[in-house]
Amino acid sequence: MCHVIVTCRSMLWTLLSIVAAFGELIAFMSTDWLVGFPRTPDTVFSPQGATAAGEAYRPTLGIYGRCIRLPHLRRGVLCGPYAVHFSEIASRFWQATSIFLAAGILLLCAVAFISVFTMCFQSIMKKSIFNVCGLLQAIAGLFLILGLMLYPAGWGSDKVQGYCGPDASPYQLGLCSMGWAFYTALGGTVLTFICAVFSAQAEIATSSDKVQEEIEEGKSLICLL
């Protein structure tokens, strides 16, 4: 018989797990990791020399994508991947970052999917599903930390210098500033470790004496604060 067990702590852990997974996924896919220095999309040439024309904007650069404004493009900013193949990513450090972030996000998405079913299934192969998921989240958090630590080491690549100026170097931004995607990935990493720790509380809440008492009374839907 399937017992649906819903507690505040288990539901909160499920919600936070889903938020962490989607936050990391959105950040990874975003082009707003670096915001370049202000520039104009076109240049007007005159006898006095070259002068910038058009409204200034700041291009953005992601791990494998970018947003730029082209002179002939009327619809505004063009966003898309600059790297068609994995080997075309700006630097080897960013390639390693992609691998670690992708591995962490894959684990987080798997945990987020499993967490939805923890209301009905609290164990897998005689192991607490919350403890297993908490372990996976801790491993995912380590992958994410490694990826974020390696990311600034790629700032010295030619691609980044084209957006941030020649002063850009490993762990030196040059004329760029950090975009929201980096901070989202960083916040998602912190939330991942919070979820890993909180999974133990979700386990305690769903295996408490009150839950066992209601199971013995024959209830199939158990809701506890």
From TrEMBL:
It is a multi-pass membrane protein. GO terms for cellular component: membrane. Keywords: Fertilization, Membrane, Transmembrane, Transmembrane helix. The chain crosses the membrane at residues 12-31, 93-117, 129-151, 180-200. It is found in: Membrane. Pfam families: L_HMGIC_fpl. This is LHFPL tetraspan subfamily member 2a protein. It comes from Carassius auratus.
